[in-house]
Specification:
69% of the residues lie in helices and 0% in strands. The chain is elongated and about 80 Å long.
Length: 178
C-alpha cells in the first residue's frame, strides 16, 4: 500500500491500520479526496513542495506502522536540510556583499568612489540577508545530530555577524554624517 494516500487513486483512501486489519469497508463509501487534482498539482510542484504536501497527507492518516514513520522521518529531514541550505545560501550572499564593503572600507571608499548612499545600501542589504537567513533557519525544526550541529554553528555565526554589523552601522552613520 502506498505511504501517501494520494497514490491509492481513491476519493476515500483507506489508512494503514485499516489495510493491516483487512478492513476495506471505506472503499464502498464515496469520499471527498480529490486525488486527480492532487496528482495534477504534484507534477507542477517542485521537489520540496511535493515532500511537504506528501508529509501532510501521511500525517493526516495517523499511521503507526514503522516503515511509514521512517518514511515520514526522511521526508521531514529532507525538507529541513533544504531549508537549512537555503539559509546558508542567503547568509553567504550577505557575507559576500559585506566582504566587498570591507574591501572598499580599507580603501576608504575612494577607489572606486563609493557614495554615502551606496555604503548605507550595502549595510542594509547585508542586514537583510542575515535577517532572512535567520528567519528561514527558524523553519528547521526537524533535525538529526548532524543537522543539529550545523544548525547550532550557523546560529552562532549569524549572531556574531549581527554583532559585527551593528558596530559597522555605527561606523557608517558617523562616516556618512561628516
Amino acid at each position: 500500500m502506498p505511504f501517501d494516500p494520494m497514490w491509492q487513486f481513491m476519493s476515500n483512501p483507506i489508512d494503514h491500520s485499516d489495510f493491516e486489519n483487512s478492513d476495506y469497508s471505506k472503499l464502498s463509501i464515496s469520499g471527498n479526496f480529490s486525488y486527480n487534482d492532487s496528482i495534477d498539482q504534484y507534477f507542477k510542484d517542485d521537489d520540496i513542495t511535493r515532500l511537504k504536501k506528501s508529509t501532510k497527507r501521511m500525517l493526516a492518516s495517523d499511521s503507526t506502522i514503522p516503515l511509514v514513520l521512517e518514511w515520514l522521518h526522511w521526508n521531514r529531514l529532507s525538507v529541513s536540510y533544504s531549508d537549512y541550505n537555503e539559509a546558508v545560501e542567503i547568509y553567504n550572499s550577505g557575507v559576500k556583499i559585506y566582504d566587498d564593503y570591507r574591501i572598499q572600507k580599507s580603501k576608504r571608499f575612494k577607489t572606486p568612489k563609493v557614495s554615502d548612499s551606496q555604503i548605507k545600501n550595502i549595510i542594509s542589504t547585508t542586514e537583510n540577508s542575515i535577517r532572512d537567513a535567520s528567519e528561514i533557519l527558524k523553519k528547521v525544526v526537524y533535525r538529526d545530530d548532524e543537522l543539529e550541529r550545523s544548525y547550532n554553528d550557523l546560529c552562532g555565526i549569524i549572531s556574531e555577524a549581527r554583532s559585527n554589523l551593528e558596530k559597522e552601522k555605527i561606523f557608517v552613520n558617523r562616516y556618512t554624517s561628516t
